[in-house]
Amino acid sequence: MNPQEIKAFLKSVKETDIEELEYQSGEDSLYFKKSAAEFDAAPAAQAAAEQVVAEEEKSSIVAITSATVGTFHAAGSDKSQVIKEGSSVEPGKKVGQIEAMKIIKDVVSKVKGKVVKVSVANGASVEYGQELFLVDTSK
């Protein structure tokens, strides 16, 4: 076997579950044994890949946050448009209001998707940047 054949052979064996191999043909012989680190690395690599998938799914979740300090109102004058879990939102859609010192500011979605979590109750005090809703933008 020439070095390129050996390299190709080792590469093909590496992708299998063969742990140890001894090969002999005429004057050529080859002994191969996977190290324990390779065995431990396989489950770790799979776990890392699963974590990447989970993070990608998680990254499709976007928070609608408070732009000011005040009292959150889930609905304005039209109570039929209260945003609940499962509600669809789109950019520009009013999702609530925040009242501070008798000044009312609309909370508007900047993303399109489905609300997966309502993080504050109607009438609750909110801080600047506080999460109000979580929206899954993949739906």
The CATH architecture of the largest domain can be given as: Beta Barrel
How much of the sequence lies in strands comes to 35-45%
Please trace the helix and strand order, writing H or E for each element.
Answer: HEEHEEEEEEEE
How large, in whole angstroms, is the Cα Rg?
29 Å
The CATH class label of the largest domain is Mainly Beta
pLDDT under 50 segments (min length 5)?
A: none
How far apart lie the N and C ends? 55 Å
Mean pLDDT: 81
- With helices defined by DSSP (H or I, 4 residues minimum), what is the helix count? 2
Q: Can you characterise this structure?
A:
Residues 64-133 form the Lipoyl-binding domain. It holds the Pfam family Biotin_lipoyl. Its cofactor is (R)-lipoate. This is Biotin carboxyl carrier protein of acetyl-CoA carboxylase. It is a single chain. By secondary structure, this protein is an alpha+beta fold. The chain has two domains: 3-33, no CATH class; 61-136, OB fold (Dihydrolipoamide Acetyltransferase, E2P), CATH 2.40.50.100. The chain has two helices and ten strands, in the order αββαββββββββ. The protein has helices spanning 3-14, 36-59, and strands at residues 20-25, 28-33, 61-65, 70-73, 88-89, 94-100, 103-108, 113-118, 125-126, 131-136. A four-stranded antiparallel sheet has the order 3-10-8-5. It is rod-shaped and about 95 Å long. The two termini are 55 Å apart. The mean pLDDT is 81.
